[in-house]
From TrEMBL:
<keyword id="KW-0687">Ribonucleoprotein</keyword>
<dbReference type="GO" id="GO:1990904">
    <property type="term" value="C:ribonucleoprotein complex"/>
</dbReference>
<dbReference type="InterPro" id="IPR000509">
    <property type="entry name" value="Ribosomal_eL36"/>
</dbReference>
<protein>
    <recommendedName>
        <fullName>60S ribosomal protein L36</fullName>
    </recommendedName>
</protein>
<keyword id="KW-0689">Ribosomal protein</keyword>
<dbReference type="GO" id="GO:0005840">
    <property type="term" value="C:ribosome"/>
</dbReference>
<comment type="similarity">
    <text>Belongs to the eukaryotic ribosomal protein eL36 family.</text>
</comment>
<dbReference type="GO" id="GO:0003735">
    <property type="term" value="F:structural constituent of ribosome"/>
</dbReference>
<feature type="region of interest" description="Disordered">
    <location>
        <begin position="1"/>
        <end position="34"/>
    </location>
</feature>
<dbReference type="InterPro" id="IPR038097">
    <property type="entry name" value="Ribosomal_eL36_sf"/>
</dbReference>
<dbReference type="Pfam" id="PF01158">
    <property type="entry name" value="Ribosomal_L36e"/>
</dbReference>
<feature type="compositionally biased region" description="Basic and acidic residues">
    <location>
        <begin position="14"/>
        <end position="23"/>
    </location>
</feature>
């Protein structure tokens, strides 16, 4: 709410103009940049999947209805946290879908 210019009341205080503030670097922390994304993509392309990631991929390919839960539990044991396990599961699922699309197209 805007200040009223009065000394008492809900909106007490001197009337001022709101100052536009520059965005702080801390507000963009953790956001993925173009360069980092490209570097990670190239590194993944060159190095491929690690053994535990290949195992997760195999679980996704062969597993039935409970594959998601088994993959999650396996990833959580390897990576140590709930959030990382979910992210890894989605990452490997995306890789699997890319591979299937590539096979269907070729």
């Amino acid at each position: 709410m805007a200040k009223s210019g009065l000394a008492k009341g809900a909106n007490k205080g001197h009337i001022t103009d709101a100052k536009e503030r520059a965005a702080r670097p801390s507000q963009s922390k953790g956001r993925l940049g173009k360069r980092t994304a490209l570097c990670r993509e190239i590194a993944r392309e060159v190095s491929g999947l690690s053994p535990y990631e290949r195992r997760i991929l195999d679980m996704i390919k062969t597993g039935g209805s409970s594959a998601d839960k088994r993959v999650y539990k396996f990833a959580k044991r390897r990576l140590g946290s709930h959030k990382r396990a979910l992210a890894k599961r989605e990452d490997i699922k995306a890789i699997n879908s890319k591979m299937r699309a590539k096979q269907a197209g070729a």
